[in-house]
Amino acid sequence: MAATQTAIIPSGTKGAKQLRACLLCSLIQHPLDFRKFGCPNCEELMQMKNSGDRVTACTTTYFDGVIAVIDPEKSWVAKWQRTSKYVRGMYAIRVRGRIPEDVEHELDNRGIRYRPRDQLDQD
Ligand SMILES: [Zn+2]
């Protein structure tokens, strides 16, 4: 099974409580999919595949404002992604929480300043 440029879109957002958002790119997936496939955008940095602990550390259930597809070119993620592309999928507009320190250091090594997604507003 080759990786595609489309994330697995969770069916039905009603049970959204079970879904988790990637702390780095805000992609929303079912935790089992994060564990099975990692984050299609950030797996290189997050390394969640086959690690429930990493999924817990790198994703959160505290997110809101779900959008279906975003324009890949406008994302800040494109700055550190070699492909310069977000996969299509469901994304959270706001995500609470911080990426693990090792991931932050890795971004730092690449000369990229991490912007926590939960500081977009101050409530
Ligand atoms: Zn991600």
From TrEMBL:
<dbReference type="GO" id="GO:0008270">
    <property type="term" value="F:zinc ion binding"/>
</dbReference>
<dbReference type="InterPro" id="IPR029040">
    <property type="entry name" value="RPABC4/Spt4"/>
</dbReference>
<comment type="function">
    <text>The SPT4-SPT5 complex mediates both activation and inhibition of transcription elongation, and plays a role in pre-mRNA processing. This complex seems to be important for the stability of the RNA polymerase II elongation machinery on the chromatin template but not for the inherent ability of this machinery to translocate down the gene.</text>
</comment>
<dbReference type="InterPro" id="IPR022800">
    <property type="entry name" value="Spt4/RpoE2_Znf"/>
</dbReference>
<dbReference type="InterPro" id="IPR009287">
    <property type="entry name" value="Spt4"/>
</dbReference>
<dbReference type="GO" id="GO:0140673">
    <property type="term" value="P:transcription elongation-coupled chromatin remodeling"/>
</dbReference>
<dbReference type="GO" id="GO:0032044">
    <property type="term" value="C:DSIF complex"/>
</dbReference>
<feature type="domain" description="Spt4/RpoE2 zinc finger">
    <location>
        <begin position="19"/>
        <end position="96"/>
    </location>
</feature>
<keyword id="KW-0539">Nucleus</keyword>
<comment type="similarity">
    <text>Belongs to the SPT4 family.</text>
</comment>
<protein>
    <recommendedName>
        <fullName>Transcription elongation factor SPT4</fullName>
    </recommendedName>
</protein>
<keyword id="KW-0137">Centromere</keyword>
<dbReference type="InterPro" id="IPR038510">
    <property type="entry name" value="Spt4_sf"/>
</dbReference>
<keyword id="KW-0804">Transcription</keyword>
<dbReference type="GO" id="GO:0006355">
    <property type="term" value="P:regulation of DNA-templated transcription"/>
</dbReference>
<dbReference type="Pfam" id="PF06093">
    <property type="entry name" value="Spt4"/>
</dbReference>
<dbReference type="GO" id="GO:0000775">
    <property type="term" value="C:chromosome, centromeric region"/>
</dbReference>
<dbReference type="GO" id="GO:0000993">
    <property type="term" value="F:RNA polymerase II complex binding"/>
</dbReference>
